[in-house]
Fold GNAT family N-acetyltransferase.
Amino acid sequence: MAVNDLPVILTERLELRPPVPDDFAVTGRIIAHPETARFLGTRPGQSDQFLRFMRGAGSWLLYGYGPFTLRLRSSGEVIGNCGLFHSWRDLGADFDDVPEAGWILAHDQVGRGLAGEAMGAALDWFDRAHGPRRVTCLIEAGNVASLALAARLGFAAVRDAPLVGGDIIHLLDRGRP
């Protein structure tokens, strides 16, 4: 997939598009907000946020999928990101080197069904573009809303594991062979 062939998805309320360099500052502010950051594990600073951003952008180039930047269609405001990306987190052979789903919304956008709308569209696109296959996600313990969304999206619990830094996360997958 060439860089100019990357998908843009429109839903009723959202535009999902691959990230551009200007998204780094906006999504960095979203991630830095305490209400959002509380479920994102240890985030020591801007360099970690940059690595997260680049991991997503690199996933598009190397694997043909990655996180989408979420924009409200009504205003054009960037409100987060979601999608699938390729990651390696040293969680074991059952979770490394496979597509991982993730979603992050600005704290003031939570509870409106936007994450479900976005992830439903992203997963539908992924299945069409890459064929139905196993997808993982990880959710920090205590993030009840994301666990509920994951269940609605077809993810099931596999096991718990510690992330680097000690935070316990729930490992889930969709379409486990």
